UniProtKB/TrEMBL annotation:
Domain K+ potassium transporter C-terminal: 519-758
Subcellular location, record wording: Membrane
Ranges where the record places region Disordered: 24-58
Transmembrane segments: 131-156, 222-244, 265-283, 289-311, 337-356, 368-391, 412-435, 441-462, 469-488
Protein name: Putative potassium transporter 14
């Protein structure tokens, strides 16, 4: 069932011919046309932070997609959609199965080493029924959490093959504007991996949830807190789980040699952990192929030993599949049984890894491996241990040669449960907002699994003083770091938006920008998606000259895993053509590596710019003079004639190339320009203008590229409350100083780098 919902979600935005279905307000048709002009006007009135969305009725209508130059480029890419219905390849699935064992199922596979030991440390065995009851609890925990919740439901909530807490958050952000950073642009939705499903008219519940999420700052912050909390727990759990599994395995040496010292067990574990983490840099697929066969032997051995114990000690433990024994277990042991839940949940350790590590494998390979190999072997292993315990109730402390202190294990369970609960909440939102399934199924899912996890969590919290507080403290530290970074970045972005330069100022400065235009390309690195950053004004007033071509580059991380290289850059012209100024958005997914050399980046940037200019010339050649589009709608109300630096006059209806006037005509134009303008009926030579501008870019490229970095910082105002000053002026400032951001990761030579510092008071 979940698979069918997921496939319905993968169909993308519904289109009919060139039309698309969109949720719009009653007044949207008139409002969208003047969006760019209104944005510039809003800059002078206080801009984005003061904008408020009116609550108006919305309806699902079929409209023509709004096109600007960012969208023109985005639409040109054919896309690289994954085939959701690709044929099942048994051979490839078997190879992936082997790799999956080595990467995904190591934690849950080693859980039999310590689960029963931890349970019976809290609730000692008093008879056969206690063993049967504890086994029944373990069996249904395995069936409900790893199998039903993760393998059959949560795996289908992946973000284009990516799993984990952030993947769910990005999936939600793509379908609702819940990000606290207001840098979304419409063209992001045209990425080939940015697939949306518009809420259907029949399920108005989805729209209502979307509206509540988008309009409530409290809900946005709460959602972010949940995501950061879950991520902190994942990292904290990653600190404990490998140590727990490796040390438990090394403790098997004490079975044969009871006098084997514990300090040697610890040293062996440390050596194994160092080796394991050292080889991880050789790629996940290689590690999976190496470790996979070992874990394959382990699972077969686990199942074989369980089968042997069942044959030797009897099969009475199969009664545990009747869940009524769970009730009897709690009836007999009450509070002790409740405390033993902290040990029981360890059988599901690594369940979150089934989803988080999905990025390396396909959904079917993970499902195939768990259902047909991992789960049967685990069930046989636990059944065999229970059969052994029924016959040997006095040896409950050596069930599987485990001898670690119990406090190390209740640490693992509290982190695991924290991640599980966050996943349940996020998947519930995905069910309502994206999958749009029956509300009864949604309520059943959240009630069963969140209720079950809260019961386990209450048991773990009762023992938090035994050692789990260390893990919680570590997770709280990680959460604080991530939240402070998000809070400071949001304030910085909002300050830059409010102080960006108005387009009127650029027009008054003219195409020379009030200074000298020196040959070359200047790449102004900033975070704004629209408008000219205030830091550019500092460059104009600080530097003796500015480059003949300016490209404002904004590095934007979009809520998709990977952005294909051919979709990386989007361009838009700023001001008239004679200014030679462009806005570029360099888009990266949250899994894209930022390791390209600066020369490679420059080549890709310029190639994409030339491609944009050719596309723009082709589009404009098909338009009439009255349809001529500029970057700012207000330009249409001004004079249509401007004077170029050489004295020639040009119509704004034509693409401007003031710096490129054919030499054979320049003298005659200069002599007559002061007397009368060119005829408005002249037809521009688009091909010639295109070649001239491409030639201009080529000359500027040869003269070199210089990166103009605006090192913007924020400081709390003097009248701010003390805690805000502490967070912004010290904690966030420390994180900012020690973080390599955006283009600075490309190791740009100092000879190609200019920096100007600007401080924003927030």
């Amino acid at each position: 069932m979940a698979e069918s919902f997921a496939r319905a979600n993968g169909g993308g935005m519904r289109r009919v011919g060139s039309m698309e279905w969109r949720w719009v307000s009653q007044e949207v048709n008139d409002a969208e046309e003047g969006e760019e002009a209104e944005e510039e006007k809003g800059t002078q009135r206080g801009d984005m932070e003061s904008e408020e969305e009116d609550e108006v009725d919305q309806k699902l209508i079929r409209t023509s997609p709004r096109i600007d130059w960012f969208d023109v480029e985005a639409l040109e890419v054919t896309g690289m959609q994954k085939n959701e219905d690709e044929e099942f390849d048994l051979g490839r699935t078997m190879v992936l199965t082997l790799q999956t064992l080595g990467v995904v199922f190591g934690d849950v596979g080693t859980s039999p080493l310590y689960t029963f030991d931890m349970m019976f440390n809290k609730c000692p065995i008093r008879g056969d029924d206690d063993v049967i009851g504890a086994l029944s609890l373990v069996l249904y925990t395995l069936i409900l959490i790893p199998l039903v919740k993760y393998v059959l439901v949560v795996l289908w909530g992946n973000d284009d093959g990516e799993g984990g807490t952030f993947a769910l958050y990005s999936l939600i952000c793509r379908n609702a504007k819940v990000s606290l950073l207001p840098n979304q642009i419409p063209s992001d939705a045209r990425l080939s991996s940015f697939r949306l499903k518009v809420p259907s008219p029949e399920l108005e519940r989805s729209l209502k949830v979307k509206e509540h999420l988008e309009s409530s700052e409290v809900l946005k912050k709460l959602l972010l807190v949940l995501v950061l909390f879950g991520t902190s727990m994942v990292i904290a759990n990653g600190v404990v789980t490998p140590t727990m599994s490796v040390t438990s395995a090394a403790s098997g040496l004490k079975v044969e040699k009871s006098n084997f010292p514990q300090d040697k067990v610890v040293m062996i574990s440390v050596a194994l952990l160092i080796i394991m983490f050292s080889v991880q840099k050789y790629a996940t697929s290689k590690v999976g192929l190496v470790v996979g066969p070992a874990l394959l032997i382990w699972f077969f051995s686990l199942g074989g030993i369980g089968t042997y114990n069942l044959i030797k000690y009897g099969s009475t433990v199969f009664k545990a599949f009747n869940p009524v024994h769970i009730y009897y277990y709690f009836e007999r042991n009450s509070s002790q049984a409740w405390l033993s839940l902290g040990g029981c949940i360890l059988c599901a350790t690594g369940s979150e890894a089934i989803f988080a590590d999905l990025c390396y494998f396909s959904v079917r390979s993970v499902q195939f491996t768990f259902v047909f190999l991992v789960l049967p072997c685990l069930l046989l292993g636990y059944l065999g241990q229970a059969a052994f315990l029924v016959a040997n109730q006095t040896t409950s402390d050596q069930i599987f040669f485990s001898s670690l202190p119990s406090k190390i294990y209740r640490s693992a369970s509290i982190a695991e449960l924290g991640v599980m609960m966050m996943t349940t909440v996020l998947v519930t939102i995905v069910m309502i907002l994206i999958w749009q399934i029956n509300i009864f199924l949604v309520v059943s899912f959240v009630t069963i699994f969140l209720g079950l996890e809260l019961i386990f969590f209450s048991s773990v919290l009762a023992s938090v003083g035994d050692g789990s507080w260390v893990l919680l403290l570590f997770a709280a530290f990680l959460f604080s770091v991530m939240y402070i970074w998000n809070y400071g970045s949001k304030l910085k972005y909002e300050s830059e938006v409010k102080q960006k330069l108005p387009m009127d100022l650029m027009r008054k400065l003219g195409c020379n920008l009030g200074t000298v235009r020196a040959p070359g390309i200047g790449v102004v690195c900033n975070e704004l998606m629209k408008g000219i950053p205030a830091i550019f004004g500092h460059f104009l007033t600080t530097l003796p000259a500015i480059h003949s071509m300016i490209i404002f580059v904004s590095v934007k991380y979009v809520p998709v895993p990977v952005v294909p290289q051919e979709e990386r850059f989007l361009f838009k012209r700023i001001c008239p053509r004679s200014y030679h100024m462009f806005r570029c958005i360099a888009r990266y997914g949250y899994k894209d590596g930022r390791k390209e050399n600066h020369r490679i980046f420059e080549q890709l940037l310029i190639d994409s710019l030339e491609k944009f200019i050719r596309k723009e010339a082709q589009e404009r050649s098909l338009q009439s003079e009255s349809d001529y589009d500029s970057d700012d709608e207000e330009e249409r109300s001004h004079s249509r004639i401007v004077m170029a630096p050489n004295g020639s006059l040009y119509s704004l209806d034509f693409p401007l190339l003031g710096d490129f006037v054919p030499t054979r005509n320049s003298s005659s134009e200069a002599s007559t320009s002061s007397q009368k303008p060119q005829s408005s009926e002249a037809v521009p030579d688009y091909a010639q203008n295109l070649e001239l501008e491409l030639s201009f870019i080529e000359k500027a490229k040869v003269l070199g590229v210089v990166y103009l970095l605006g090192n913007g910082t924020i400081r709390a105002r003097k009248d701010s409350w003390f805690f805000k000053k502490l967070v912004i002026n010290y904690f966030y400032a420390f994180l900012r100083r020690n973080c390599r951001r955006g283009i600075t990761t490309m190791s740009i030579p100092h000879t190609h780098l200019l920096q100007v510092r600007k401080t924003y008071m927030v």
